[in-house]
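Much of our argument rests on the idea that a fold can be written as discrete symbols. Part of our work consisted of pairing the sequence of a single chain with a tokenised description of its backbone. The amino acid sequence and the backbone structure tokens for this protein are reproduced below.
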Amino acid sequence: MLKKTLPTWGGYRDKYAGIKRALKITLFRMWAAGAVCFFAAWGRAGPREADELFSLSLILSLILVMVLCDIIIVNPVIRLASGKRILGDEPLGWRLFVKRPLHIVKVVLLIILIVHTYYFLNVVSIRAFGLDQDAVPVPLEPILFGTLYGLYYLFFDLLLKHTLGRLFPTLFVKEQT
């Protein structure tokens, strides 16, 4: 009796072949962002929301760890799983001087947007439910952080591809699957 072979994704048998590649990538990015939040934000001891310097250092550490995680872990895993070479097909100068700085700016904007989203959710919750002004009804936690990161990353990706795709039509060539 012959075993049923599974489709491959990046050279490995894929038992999740029914799920689209973009959704797998988004879920992996969300998981990685949640892990970064868990290790970088939850592991910190300090006077949490009261100290502005602590809040700023927390945001900066989230940005730094998220950028490093994206560049060192997430993007190479996604390239490997897509069947692309680790070093990529583009020239080294393009990757070092254009793509990485733009990616760093995108991660900084995403983290700032997520921090503002948490602030907005807390302010609305405090006013809607009449809570104490010092209360934090929506604290920083990995699941919501990862979800917001994944959704905002998709939004930024679509926005950049739409706007830059109109300015530079040959920049985003559709992949053949």
